[in-house]
Amino acid sequence: MQLDQATPEQLRQWESQLDAEYQGFLAQKLNLDLTRGKPSAEQLSLSDALDGILKGNYIAADGTDTRNYGGLDGLPEAKQLGANLLGVAASDILVGGNSSLTLMFQVMLAAHQFGLKDSASAWKNEGEVSFICPVPGYDRHYTVCAQLGIKMINVAMTANGPDMDAVEALVKADKSIKGIWCVPKYSNPTGVVYSDETVDRIAALGKIAGDNFRVFWDNAYGVHDLIDNAPVLASILEATRRHNTEDSVIQFASTSKITHAGAGVAFVAASAANQAGIKKFLNTCTIGPDKVNQIRHTRFLPDNAALLAHMKKHAALLNPRFEAVLSALSGAFDGTDLGYWEKPVGGYFVSFDTRKGCAQETVRLAAEAGVKLTPAGATYPYGKDAEDRNIRIAPSVPTVPEVVAAMKVFVTCVKLASVRKQLAS
Q: Average pLDDT of 284-296?
């Protein structure tokens, strides 16, 4: 189906056929959900051994009684788990609660209101504060910026990561820009892995940016490979050391999609200077994190080999779901002008771009047919996708047959919205 080459008569015929298919889906009264990238119940069950794993032994390797207060940095063995996830030294790690998003918000709040170096370094002292947001991207990042009144500036994602020519030009020209959001491996939602060159150029931004610039490096999917011999992300830490910009990057990760999503452990990796600023802030709002949960995780995932073996179990459950999505898209849209999508080999999402002006209508049609999708525009700051194209598909929670059923509806809705848009024009 090539809409740009179709006659009005062909379009009307396609519209009639597609509407008949769509009416059939309406009659089925489906209730399927592809909205959020959460682990399925099967995936959560992979970590049920966490329950009872301590067997009454709450003492950490360094003698810490994990039931008590204190330990702002986290247990040494928990720091090592974070180091395994982020590819850094344990001394670079601070350990938090179950949510890396909480840590991101806390670090951004500290940088904005109080400064990570001293009070003079607080972003708020400089008037308007801006952040670069590669798009499409992660909606929760935008919420953090919006909460703090930080202006968001869109930069397009490419197959290698953010458009670095655009990023560098913006950072050079606008000193109100205090950072950039990055999901460097299996980017949410495109699934792109940043190239070595992109990682190096991001590490060098600290040399051309204004004072107190920070890269928020959200490596949420660093070990979430779906294939063997998966792409390897270059080390941002090594790159910053080459450029002498180590203070410009703060890394984040968690076990949220590794163990129990609502009861995991989160990590921030930062230079000594950044750690000092973060700990000064945290010391005012906590007596210490949940160390009992930290030690549970370190006994469940005692080393990197155990971590990677555990992730292969996740991949075995996720792969058929992703294959169902990608097979449906290829079968319906290969050789057409109806859409574009990445073919991720890890992470939790598939990003689909409709023809211009068709995403919202596709999502509306799907919802009426009983298939819930992330709202069109959610992958852009302020919920505004200027071209109304991007839709994020999250196949992890439904069963494989449910994903297959949902994608049949999705495909028909994309086609129907596209044909009607073309007829209207």
A: 95
Report the pLDDT averaged over residues 10-21.
97
Report residue 425's pLDDT band, with 50, 70 and 90 as the boundaries.
confident
Q: Cα dist. 64→61, 71, 76, 84, 298 in Å?
A: 7, 9, 10, 22, 14
What does the domain layout of the chain look like in residue ranges? Answer: 3-43+308-424, 64-301
Same fold: 3-43+308-424 with 64-301: no
Beta bridge partners, 179, equal: 131, 214
Angle between helices 291-300 and 76-86 (to 10 degrees): 60
pLDDT class for 2, splitting at 50, 70, 90?
Answer: confident
**62 by DSSP, 3-state: which?**
coil
Over residues 304-330, the mean pLDDT reads: 98
Name the region of 155 (left: φ>0; alpha: ψ -120 to 50; beta: rest): beta
Dig out the tokens for 230 from the structure: 């998966």
3-state SS, residue 335: coil
E strand residue ranges, 305-382: 339-341, 350-354, 371-373
- Region for residue 264 given its phi and psi (left: phi exceeds 0; alpha: psi -120 to 50; beta: otherwise): beta
pLDDT of 398 > 90? The answer is: yes
What is the chain's length?
425
Region 231-255: mean pLDDT is 98
Mean pLDDT of 131-136: 98
pLDDT in tens, 318-340: 999 999 999 999 999 999 999 99
Q: Which of 145, 135, 268, 249 is nearest to 202 (CA)?
A: 249
Q: What distance lies between CA 70 and its chain's CA centroid?
A: 31
Asked whether the beta carbons of 216 and 252 are under 8 A apart, the reply is: yes
At position 268, the amino acid (one-letter code) is V
The whole-angstrom distance between residue 141's C-alpha and the CA centroid of its chain comes to 9
Residue 25 · residue 370 · CB < 8 Å: yes
Confidence of residue 243 (pLDDT cuts 50, 70, 90): very high
Per the listing, tokens 């294959």 go with 323
**How big is the CA angle at 110 (ends 215 and 193), to the nearest 5 degrees?**
20
Selection from 59, 84, 143 nearest residue 265 by Cα: 84
Cα separation, 338 vs 31, whole angstroms: 25
Contacts of 178 (CB under 8 A, 6+ apart): 111, 123, 126, 129, 130, 131, 150, 210, 212, 213, 214
Cα angle, residue 80 at apex, residues 108 and 181 outer, rounded to 5°:
25
CATH, domain range 64-301: 3.40.640.10
- CATH code of 3-43+308-424, in short, is 3.90.1150.10
